[in-house]
Amino acid sequence: MPKMKTKSGAKKRFHLTASGKVSRGQAGKRHGMIKRSNSQIRKLRGTTLLSEPDAKRVKKYFMPNG
Questions:
Q1: I want to staple 4 with a disulfide (CB 3.0 to 4.6 A). Which of 11, 28, 41, 64 is the partner?
Q2: What confidence score (pLDDT) does residue 6 get?
Q3: In this predicted structure, what is the pLDDT of residue 62?
Q4: Three-state secondary-structure class, residue 40
Q5: Is the pLDDT of residue 66 over 90?
Q6: Can you give the CATH number for the domain in which 26 is found?
């Protein structure tokens, strides 16, 4: 059997934390900043964790090797 490979798109979008949760970048910060409030822009900084059902799917299908 061939090896399971990590999807290239998933490599760029997600990474696993030490406890096995999936971290992702915040959505909604690519363009259109002028129509967002300053508080909204501040809250969208950094990364956040993926929800548990989505994380399970990402780990199983897109990042089988972690």
A1: 64
A2: 95
A3: 96
A4: helix
A5: no
A6: 4.10.410.60
Distance CA 19, CA 9 (A): 22
Q: How many CB atoms within 10 Å of residue 56?
A: 12
- Which one-letter amino acid corresponds to residue 16? L
As for how many domains the chain has, the answer is 1
0.90 cut: is pTM over it? no
Strand runs (DSSP E) across 1-66, as ranges? 14-16, 22-25, 47-49
Question: Quick one: DSSP state of residue 58?
Answer: I
- Average pLDDT for the chain: 95
Is there a domain that residue 21 lies in? yes
Q: Which domain holds residue 53?
A: 8-62
Locate 58 and state its tokens. 């990402």
Structure confidence at residue 1 (pLDDT) = 83
The three-class DSSP label of residue 39 is helix
